[in-house]
Amino acid sequence: MTSSQNMKYDGHGSSFIIDIATTVNYTINKAKKRWRFAYTAIYSRRVMLALAKEVISKRNTNSNPYSKLFQTQSSNSTNTIDIIEPLIPQHGTNHYSLVPDVDKARLASMVKDKNLLAFNEFGGVEGVANILGTTPAKGITGSDDDIAQRRDLFGSNTYQRPPPKVFLSFVVEAFNDTTILILLVCAGLSLGFGIKEHGPGEGWYEGGSIFVAVFLVVVVTALSNFRQERQFDKLSKISNDIKVEVVRNGRPQQISIFEVLVGDIVSLKIGDQIPADGLFMSGHSLHVDESSMTGESDHVEIEPLKSPFLLSGAKVVDGFAQMLVTSVGTNTAWGEMMSSISRDTNERTPLQARLDKLTSSIGKVGLTVAFFVLIVLLIRYFTGNTQDDKGNKEFQGSKTDINDVFNAVVRIVAAAVTIVVVAIPEGLPLAVTLTLAYSMKRMMADQAMVRKLSACETMGSATVICTDKTGTLTLNQMRVTKFWLGLENVMENFSNAMASNVLQLFHQAVGLNTTGSVYKASSTSEPEISGSPTEKAILLWAVSDLGMDMDELKSTHKVLHVETFNSEKKRSGIAIKKETNNTVHVHWKGAAEIILDMCSNYIDNNGIEKSLDEERSKLEKIIQGMAACSLRCIAFAHMQISEDIDYNDKENAHQILRKNGLTLLGIVGLKDPCRPDVKKAVETCKLAGVSIKMITGDNIFTARAIATECGILDLDGHVNPGEVVEGMEFRNYTEEVRMEKVDKIRVMARSSPLDKHLMVQCLKKKGHVVAVTGDGTNDAPALKEADIGLSMGIQGTEVAKESSDIVILDDNFNSVATVLRWGRCVYNNIQKFIQFQLTVNVAALVINFIAAVSSGDVPLTTVQLLWVNLIMDTLGALALATERPTKELMEKKPVGRTEPLITSIMWRNLLAQALYQIAVLLVLQFNGKSIFNVNEEVKDTLIFNAFVLCQVFNEFNSRSMEKLNVFEGILKNHLFLGIVGITVVLQVVMVELLRKFADTERLTWEQWGICIGIAAMSWPIAWFTKRLPVSDKPFASHVKWVKLLVFKIKHIFNFTSSHV
């Protein structure tokens, strides 16, 4: 064995492979003959083994890099061949096959622990790529078998979420309500006393009825919450389904983050979320934010040798790169953490918080009324003023059986508690939940994904929308339509219009100074271009019109240093070394006027370099002319470097990217047409009282042209002073001037993310509710600062999406207008339900209180009140909370921050209906027997039936708070009609069939007609009421005025009495 270790072979790499074979940490217990046989097999395949040397880094040959990578199952020495063979390319391909017995745990922990020692033992990123069967240039094969094998070996890029709450847990939560528990106790006592008094055959009716009614309320509430939870879970899964760019078989492609596999090569750019744990393969200036993992706010610089580790969940804040995925799913640090975290579904929106206060206030009123009713009924009972069914006194002092006393007290307590149940508008939070869940679902269909519930309602109050231009107002389908070479406008035959040396410089400028890519499956196939819309347009122009071959460019040039593009600098630079002659070139690309300022010379169509001194003004006019035609102007500049600079030294590397004295190569104009429906959407927002401000990075001429085309500026081209400004101008204003001018601004050009953030702050200080669109990483501060952050689903970075409240899936401004419409709809639906519910609350409380005080009898029993509670809380909420947006909503002014939830119009409507119901039902309570010549039981049934039908008819009135025709569009709302129909059917069943359960009597057709007639009167009353004018001042202000008046009268009275 020693002889074999010492033997050398002069062929390519054989000695290296023999070293691997002889030093792998396997215990050799077989005969030396077996070992020699294995060695001979290896030696005979020396040509194939020589290829392994080209793949495995030479720097690791003497440190036995693969000695610890594999899990040993057998001591047989022939396993040496099994280890080496996967490192040999398969015949006819450039791919390396996956090593199936790699130590997955050690590979995963290497990245999680940022273990450089293990990294070096694996042979660096090249060694890991070989083990994972990944070709650095082409990635994995991506075949079905390859994908299946990797998924089986390493798992999928998903993590096990904590199981969602089951339906039973929602039932338990519903039972935790205090009033429900009190009712259950009362029902239990009533059931016990009833069975004792009347026997099991009939004694269970009252107590059992309360049990059934409470059970129905609990189940319906639990079912609504359960469905909402399921819907939010679905939306959460959709929002987590990030698109990731990977390279498979040499082809860049977009896949779901859940489909990322170990061995994949993932392309990263600014704003991306790192989808899995992995290693840096190639790239420049990569900085990541690991605060979500480590809590450290400082950005981490990624370096190939010192810090190559990339953690899933981190965000790219600068630079670009390709990473090699080493572990996915629960094997990553992010996956481990997320598996143990359950989503918080108890998010309370501002509107829900306001409703909680309203519910609490109404509940206190109800509690007070219930307490008075309890006291009155107890006093009347113990003073002998109540009678049983036979007309005898219920309480006769010591003669009354103690069981009868307890039974009566329990019945009285149950009635009082039920009043509390009806008084507390539990349906308000449920209505908010239902309308939010419904609107979220509908908005998803309308290309808007809600990430934060509060955004649904807040969007309805928006007074200003600050929007981007590219992709939001425009189609984001850019094409190069103009090309200026020096002072000449080149119309066609672009490649023939310039000298060969200039053409080569353009190839370098476009093909290397880019984050895009070009893939051609074959020489005859159409190129597949990926990148941002601007990059794609320029690359397509260079490939199709300039004959650029990107693969050849990359193979003949070496990238020395890169300065990536961002929205603040509005330019990107690259330093490259041409391998054929070792010349170093610097290329800059960016906003035309910025690049022009960096240049002192330009190249004409003959390739002659000329001074810019005399021609600069002409080029500035060319740029302005192109911009006035709505073109985005991109310029290219170049310089050849002759100085000897150490490019590996970071300090000196920045010096190579010269920022002045450059030579202008040319200017291209990119056309991005406005979306066909954007003008109508802008007009809709303006009619709704919402101001639109366009904030763009384009120059002022392009911005003005696009804004005019979209309808943000007047179509006649007239621009008032202060309507169009540049970001620098706005930034340099004093605080007072900014606050004075911010309302007038309609377009801000050449803006940076800082300018956008500053504008949002100013608008909020002036009391505006601000919505902001954004797609870049640097837009995150503005998106967070705004009341509603709207990120773009297609072009938006993951950082922007995480900072936003709503994701616009199609990047379309029309969808922004749709979100505004839905936001108003949510607010309006909740107001409609509040009006409906408070009508029921006021009527039920007043009727029961007056009846109890005057006669000692409560006309609506516990079971009947619970039934009313069920239909108004749950079915009513479902009917009114699912109304779709109407045109009228976008014809009103926005709801301000301080606008009261219950408006004067709502008070007018609900008081009119409540007073009518109280008046009619009290007449029935005191004179119903004589009017209709019926007994007490039928009279109570008439009151119950009329009261429920009043609520059914009032549901129609509540569909619109101001519109006289409440039936408009009703046939389109099938859910509303269905709920009304179900309510009526159930009411018939309650009255006619469940008599003992509901304590009712059968009614004749004539009596049903009387109840329907009483209820139907609510329609003409609503029609007349809505014609009554009301003050714009909030109702609460009148209450305050009355309080102030009373206080002054009391003060005058006290003053007068003290001086008499």
TrEMBL record:
Write the Enzyme Commission number(s) for this entry.
7.2.2.10
Q: Where in the cell is it found?
A: Membrane
Which controlled-vocabulary keywords does the entry list?
A: Acetylation, ATP-binding, Calcium, Calcium transport, Calmodulin-binding, Ion transport, Magnesium, Membrane, Metal-binding, Nucleotide-binding, Translocase, Transmembrane, Transmembrane helix, Transport
| InterPro entries xrefs | ATPase_P-typ_cation-transptr_C, ATPase_P-typ_cation-transptr_N, ATPase_P-typ_cyto_dom_N, ATPase_P-typ_P_site, ATPase_P-typ_TM_dom_sf, ATPase_P-typ_transduc_dom_A_sf, ATPase_P-type_domA, HAD-like_sf
Output the SUPFAM superfamilies linked to this UniProt entry: Calcium ATPase, transduction domain A, Calcium ATPase, transmembrane domain M, HAD-like, Metal cation-transporting ATPase, ATP-binding domain N
Transmembrane domains' residue ranges: 166-195, 207-226, 362-382, 412-438, 833-853, 865-884, 975-995, 1007-1025
- Pinpoint the Cation-transporting P-type ATPase N-terminal domain residues: 121-195
Q: Which domain of life is it from?
A: Eukaryota
Molecular function per GO = ATP binding; ATP hydrolysis activity; calmodulin binding; metal ion binding; P-type calcium transporter activity
Q: What is this entry's stated membrane topology?
A: Multi-pass membrane protein
Reactions catalysed: Ca(2+)(in) + ATP + H2O = Ca(2+)(out) + ADP + phosphate + H(+)
Cellular component annotations (GO), alphabetically ordered? plasma membrane
Q: What is its main location?
A: membrane
Q: Which residues form a coiled coil?
A: none
Which protein family is it in?
Belongs to the cation transport ATPase (P-type) (TC 3.A.3) family. Type IIB subfamily.
Quote the function comment for this protein: This magnesium-dependent enzyme catalyzes the hydrolysis of ATP coupled with the translocation of calcium from the cytosol out of the cell or into organelles. Catalyzes the hydrolysis of ATP coupled with the transport of calcium.
Q: What is this protein called?
A: Calcium-transporting ATPase
